[in-house]
Design goal:
about 0% strand; single chain; 7 helices; AhpD-like; globular; AhpD_core
Length: about 160
Amino acid sequence: MTSRFNLFDNELGGKFAKRFGNASLVIIQSALPKSTQELVQLRVSQINGCGWCADVHTKDAAAAGETAVRLNLVATWRESTVFTNAERAALALAEEGTRLADAHPGVSDQTWARVREHYTDDQIAALVALVAQINAANRLAVITRQQGGSYQPGMFATATAN
């Protein structure tokens, strides 16, 4: 399988990709723990079958000090002992907010209550925005068949700096 299209090589696509990346800065700079951000993005990318995004978030998490054990167990977080209750709440919200097309009723009241238990309003806003944005990023990458494996941590740091 080869990539169909590179948004960065197209003028309009490049402008969109830069603005899309800049929108993520609000989330990145929020009080939502960075490890939670990466775990959520990895789990959503796994659900959506996005190899590119799974590659990015696995490598960025590892570069930030996340352990291989936790990264390997994200897909089975419910059956794992290595995640905090706060992380479990975030992962549940991420899954329920992602599986909307699977006849899922959306985010359950139980999951929402657990999220409210562990996060401030600003962190919740960041978490909801993060789930929405990584789902959009997954769709962009899957539609254009971006493949995982070539990402190097930090390679897009300057793309959103300007």
